[in-house]
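ok here's DUF4349 domain-containing protein:
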Amino acid sequence: MRRFQYGTALSAACAALLLTGLTGCGGSGGAAGVSASRAESAPADVPAVAADGAAKASRGPEAQDGAGRTAGKNIASEVTVTAQERQVIYVARMTVRAKEVTAAVQKAKQVVTGAGGYLAKEQTNSSDGGDGTAELEFKIPPARYAEVLTSLGRDLGKQLSLNQGTEDVTMQVADVNSRLRSAQQALDSLRTLLKKANTIGQVLEVEREIAAREADLESLQAQQKELATQVSMATLTLSVVGPVTVVEPPSEDPPGFLGGLATGWKALVSFVKVALTVLGVLLPWLLLVAPVVALVVFLARRSGRRRATPPPPPMRPGGGSPPTPAPVRPETAAPPVRHESPAPPAPPGPAAPEKS
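and the structure:
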């Protein structure tokens, strides 16, 4: 009975949460009903409105048009449209050829830092022959994003390529925020129910549900933080190459059969490279292990042959090998003994007549 009452209380709490969410939806309908009731409860104003309409009709159509335009302006002035702030992630990739890679990298860091950004990742390969490369990943405020791109492409050297992309995550951010609020409200309701629990079973059940809700809440908070980080700072991947570095343009496979054939050939070449790499890694070990394995196999076979050889015949007491028996000739051999079965007795014949 207590479990039934506890389940009823939990269901009532969930229903209260749903009714709280639906209260906002019913607010506009309630306001409209109140306005209508007020209009019906004031019949004394109807004659005045009718008289005003008659006066406007006597003024002519021009007066009515002017009044309509004035009313339209008043309605338009009362309505305000709130522009929803878009949540956009900016991503760009730029390749620049510079005379000195190290100096260009330092210049890029100064430009980004001056705009309020920071360096997130750096990979530099320096060389004396002028073929050094560097790859930098910057985080830039969206307000200075276009300015930084223009400055880097102009001041570092010759801009070879620039690829930009955007991703609108407004709906995703709104969804995460809404789910986060709902999860927080549900967690608060469960904590209230925990204070009203009477038995150990009820306490354990509510605590288990609270733990699950807290895990969901932490996951939503992590998603919200990640989206906020991506939206608040644009990402720029800058590649700086030396004056003699060969930059290969990104290859695009043609669609259809030729594209599939090219993809299959690349996969085959990659597989052969991986197989040769594995063989090169295992070859030194094979050279070391193969002689040991061959020696073990040889010894095993040799011991097997020794076990299969029959033992030699015993020696005579006086020495020498035992005499070999002479072969038996056919004419001196005893004839084989034949075992014949006895003949059956003859049947008795007719009795002879007696002589008188």
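+1. Residues 251-278 form one domain.
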